[in-house]
Amino acid sequence: MSSAAGRHDILASWIMKKRGASMLTLVSAMYCIAVVHGFSTPQRSLRIPHAHGSASRSIGFGAVPSKDRSGRLYFSKSSNLVKDVVDTYVDYASRLWNETSTDARREIAQDKAKSAIRTVQHLVRGEEYVNLGIGDEAQEAGAKMLEACDLMLHAMGKDNSTNTIQSPLHQVALAEATTIGQGQAYAKSLSEGATSTSLSAKKKPQRSILFGAIMGAIVAGWVFSGNYIFTGLFTLMTILGQLEYYRMVMNTGVYPARRISIVGACAMFVTALLFPNLHQVVLPTFACYSCIWFLTMRRTVSTIPEIATTFMGMFYLGYIPSFWVRIRTFGGELEPTSIAPLVAPMLNWFGQTAEKLPSFIPKSIHLPITTGSIFIFWSWLCIAFSDVGAYFVGRKFGRTKLGQISPAAGATSPNKTVEGVIGGCVVSGALGMLGAWVMKWPRWYLTGAVHGVMLAMLGLIGDLTASMLKRDAGLKDFGDLLPEHGGIMDRVDSFIFSAPYSWIVIQYVIPFLKAGAKTKLPV
């Protein structure tokens, strides 16, 4: 028996044993089969600016693998999908890293200082509503201050000519700093009003059904790709999310310890996979280390916002979402789900294509289908479609603004409506019931509905929290990795706060309900 045939038999038998995978496994499988059989998707391109300069590079999404005469799958020279994905990641991470570097921080601070000095000049030269004193002494002091401001600006201009980092945040920092001094509250209120009006006036771009379908298939394949691949890709996404977050924080004039936070967040994902019993220790350990760094490595006393944003980065983008990794490893030996007889023929057919896969794929997959992976799939499906349901229901029937119930939430996201929130909960609850039936939860019609509504509400909280951070920083999006979709954080903000809750459900609530059902307790 050849090695390819051996891999085929092993994978086919394994799939048949694990045929209780959820229904979306079929979606991912069908997409992969379509790629294997040469059904290419329409060409789409993504313009990614380089870390330096204005040049950009086009990334093709329509490239597919090819097959040789024997039917073995390989990537042809004309198909650079893998290379394009890697290059895009490296370029975007490099650009974020440069824009959060020490040089970029120094230049942003210098721009703000220049704006503050110009504001002082404007006040001294004769702002009609500011009384700087009358008499020769006041005029002499004002002249000396203007002379000092001119000398300072001249010296800073010379020093600025040696800078080489060009960050897009400088213009925003400069605009923000001009509100310092005279008329600050009034100018800020006008700026916020104009921003909110312009944002509400802009129409949401038309959502791409094809893009959403492709991304859904990719995410489904990622969820069922195995513990190692799932954790590895999650960690890579966390690095980008952390850099987007700290770039946003720097936009407010706060400079946290980004290196410690990024390393700590990555350590939380790895520990959640390999040493789950030590998972809770990683956050306080790196928090202690960051305080030691602030005390020993900074030349000046660190501020409360710098320390707080460092902790927030590790907690918000490290500790909380790392619970998805713990969920992913739950239940290596799973029982068949309710749809196992229906999907068995399709999974068997998919297993027969295993011999066409590259040999490294079966070796890199560890526990592809677990109870946790099926749980993650249905939970993420509920969260994603709750946003879709809220959008369309709110657009069609939305009358009551969310701000009428919660002024802060309404100011954070003015377009959200109560009807939209209810519509999102209904859609998520329906999908939750379907998932609970598939996973054979006790009283699935009740537990699934509650689970779906909880996920919708936690997703809304995550979305509003991210919007609150962006609004305070004066940004529309966290990044520009995906055209018309923003950065990594703009896509995953709804999935963050639901991770700890989901871990409690799969670790404690569902086992308790199943134990009660077996003993016929009133659960």
Helix content: 55-70%
Number of helices: 21
The CA-CA distance between the termini, in Å, is 53 Å
- Any idea what the shape is? elongated
Question: Mean of the pLDDT scores?
Answer: 74
Which structural class is indicated by helix and strand composition?
A: mainly alpha
Which regions have little confidence, pLDDT < 50, spanning 5+ residues?
1-68, 71-78, 161-207
Multimeric organization:
single chain
Computed Rg: 27 Å
What proportion of the residues form beta strands (DSSP E)?
under 5%
Order of helices and strands: HHEEEEHHHHHHHHHHHHHHHHHHH
Q: Please provide the count of β strands.
A: 4
The biggest beta sheet is recorded as: 2 strands, antiparallel
Widest sheet: strand ordering: 1-2
Furnish the topology, listing elements before pairings.
Blueprint: H1 3-17, H2 24-36, E1 45-49, E2 56-60, E3 66-67, E4 73-74, H3 81-99, H4 102-124, H5 136-160, H6 169-177, H7 184-201, H8 209-223, H9 227-250, H10 258-274, H11 279-296, H12 304-319, H13 323-328, H14 340-351, H15 360-364, H16 371-397, H17 407-412, H18 418-438, H19 444-473, H20 488-492, H21 498-518
Helix pairs in contact: 1-14, 2-8, 2-14, 3-9, 4-5, 4-6, 9-10, 9-12, 10-11, 10-12, 11-12, 16-18, 16-19, 18-19
Describe this structure in words.
It is a single chain. The chain is mainly alpha-helical and 523 residues long. It has 21 helices and four strands. The strands form two sheets. Strands 1-2 form a two-stranded antiparallel ribbon. Strands 3-4 form a two-stranded antiparallel ribbon. The longest helix is centred in the last third of the chain and has 30 residues, at 444-473.
